[in-house]
Design goal:
Radius of gyration: 38 Å
Oligomer: single chain
Strand content: 5-15%
Strand order of the largest sheet: 2-3-5-6
Shape: elongated
Helix content: 55-70%
Number of strands: 6
Number of helices: 9
Structural class: alpha+beta
C-alpha cells in the first residue's frame, strides 16, 4: 500500500510540473497572436481591411478633387428654326473649358476634414479588430491549456485507480477486503473513463479552435499557461483610467467629429459660390468666330431650392446627435463591462487561492485515510471518497486558475494595457 501511495503522489508531482517539460514548440500568448495574424484567418481579415483602406483613401481623394480646376472639351451643335436669308440656322461650337472654384462657403474644406476624420476612425477600428483577434486567440489559448491539463489529470487518475483495483483484487483473494469494495471501484473506474472520454473530445475541440487561429494544434507547450503562475491584477483605477484611449472608443469619437464637419458642409450651401472660368474656342458661330478665348467670373447665390438645404442641415445635425449619444452610451457600457470583468477576475483570483487551500487540505485527508486503510481502520469506500474529494478540488483549482488567466489577459486587452 505504501508503494501505491508513493506512485500516486509521484503522479500528482508530475502533473504539477508538466508545463515545464520541453515540448516541440513553446508558445507565449504574444507569439500565438503573431502566428494568428499570419495565419489564414488573420490574413483574410487583413485582406478585408486592406480593401476598406482603399475605399477610405478614395473617399478622401474625392473630396480633395473639389479644390482642383476642372477641364473639359466641349462640342455643341444647334439648329435654329429661322429660315430668313443671311441667317445661319445651323451653329456649332468646339472649345476647351476650364473652371476653378474660388469660394463655396467652405463646404469643400469641411468635406475634406470629414473624410479624413472618417478615415482615421476606420484606421482605429482596424487596429481594434486586431484586439478582437487577440481576444479570440487568448480564449483559444487558455481553453487549450485547460483541456490539456484536464486530460493529463484524468489519465493519471485512471492509471492510479487501475493500480488500486489490482490492490483490492489481491486483498479480496487473501480475505482482507470485501467484494463490495471492488464493485464500488468498478463504478469509479467507469465514471473516470466517461469523464476522460469527454475530456478527450474537449481537447480535440480546443485543438481545432487553436489551430483555426494559429495553424498549430499538437506538440506545443503553452508558456503563459503554467499552473503555478498567477499574475496579480492591476488596481481598478488604472484599468478604468485608460478606457477612453481604447481604439474602438476613439473611433466612435472620430465619427462624432466627422459628423460635426458634415453639419458645416450642409450649412455652407446657404452661402454663394464664386467660380473663375475660361474658354478657348476652336470654332464658334459668327459674329464671334474671330474671338478665340474668353475669361470671367461667375457668382451664384442660392435663393430658393424648396427647403433642400435646410433639410440637409437638419439631417446632418440629427446624425451628429445620434452619433454623439451612441458614443456616450458606448463609453458608459464599456466602463460598466470593464468594471464587471475586473470584479469577476478579482473573484476568480480569490477562488484559485481558496481551491488551492481546499486541495491541500483534502490531500492531507487522503494521505491520512490511506494510512488508516493500510492499518485496517477504514474501508476502501472511505479511501475512494477522500480521493474523489481531493481530485475534485484539484481539478476545480485548475479550471478556475485557467479561467483567471484568460480573464486577466482579456481584461488587460480591453483596458488597452497590452500591446
Amino acid at each position: 500500500m505504501l508503494g501505491l501511495n508513493r506512485l500516486f503522489y509521484a503522479a500528482i508531482l508530475f502533473l504539477a510540473f508538466q508545463n515545464h517539460i520541453i515540448a516541440a514548440e513553446s508558445l507565449t500568448l504574444q507569439q500565438s497572436f503573431d502566428k494568428a495574424l499570419n495565419h489564414q484567418q488573420g490574413k483574410q481579415l487583413s485582406e478585408i481591411e486592406n480593401a476598406r483602406n482603399e475605399a477610405r483613401r478614395a473617399a478622401v481623394r474625392v473630396t480633395q478633387s473639389a479644390f482642383l480646376p476642372k477641364v473639359a472639351a466641349m462640342y455643341n451643335y444647334q439648329k435654329a428654326g429661322d429660315d430668313r436669308p443671311n441667317i445661319d440656322s445651323e451653329m456649332d461650337t468646339a472649345k476647351i473649358a476650364l473652371t476653378q472654384n474660388v469660394f463655396s462657403g467652405f463646404r469643400d474644406a469641411s468635406a475634406i476634414k470629414s473624410a479624413k476624420l472618417s478615415e482615421e476612425a476606420q484606421n482605429l477600428r482596424a487596429e481594434y479588430r486586431q484586439t478582437s483577434i487577440f481576444l479570440s486567440v487568448s480564449d483559444a489559448y487558455f481553453d487549450l491549456a485547460l483541456a490539456q491539463s484536464e486530460i493529463a489529470v484524468l489519465d493519471e487518475i485512471d492509471r492510479t485507480i487501475q493500480l488500486r483495483y489490482k490492490d483490492i483484487s489481491d486483498r479480496i483473494r487473501i480475505g482482507r477486503s470485501r467484494s463490495t469494495e471492488k464493485g464500488a471501484l468498478d463504478s469509479q473506474i467507469a465514471l473516470f473513463r466517461a469523464q476522460r472520454e469527454k475530456a478527450k473530445q474537449d481537447l480535440i475541440i480546443a485543438q481545432e479552435n487553436f489551430k483555426l487561429w494559429t495553424g498549430l494544434s499538437e506538440g506545443i507547450t503553452l508558456a503563459d499557461a503554467q499552473k503555478d503562475v498567477r499574475p496579480d491584477l492591476p488596481d481598478e483605477a488604472s484599468v478604468l483610467g485608460n478606457l477612453e484611449s481604447r481604439k474602438d472608443l476613439l473611433a466612435q469619437k472620430k465619427d462624432v467629429e466627422s459628423s460635426e464637419q458634415d453639419v458645416k458642409t450642409a450649412k455652407a450651401e446657404h452661402f454663394p459660390t464664386v467660380d473663375l472660368f475660361g474658354n478657348y474656342y476652336f470654332f464658334r458661330p459668327a459674329p464671334q468666330d474671330e474671338v478665340k478665348w474668353d475669361v470671367g467670373v461667375a457668382v451664384t447665390l442660392p435663393i430658393f431650392e424648396g427647403g433642400l438645404t435646410r433639410a440637409k442641415v437638419w439631417q446632418a445635425a440629427s446624425t451628429r446627435n445620434e452619433l454623439r449619444l451612441t458614443y456616450e452610451n458606448k463609453l458608459l457600457n464599456a466602463r460598466n463591462d470593464l468594471r464587471i470583468s475586473y470584479l469577476q477576475a478579482k473573484s476568480l483570483f480569490s477562488q484559485v487561492l481558496d481551491y488551492q487551500k481546499a486541495a491541500e487540505a483534502s490531500e492531507r485527508t487522503y494521505k491520512d485515510i490511506s494510512r488508516e486503510y493500510g492499518l485496517g481502520l477504514v474501508s476502501n469506500l472511505d479511501v475512494l471518497q477522500a480521493l474523489n474529494t481531493y481530485l475534485d478540488n484539484y481539478r476545480s483549482r485548475n479550471r478556475v486558475h485557467f479561467q483567471y488567466l484568460a480573464s486577466y489577459w482579456n481584461l488587460k486587452i480591453l483596458a488597452d494595457q497590452t500591446k
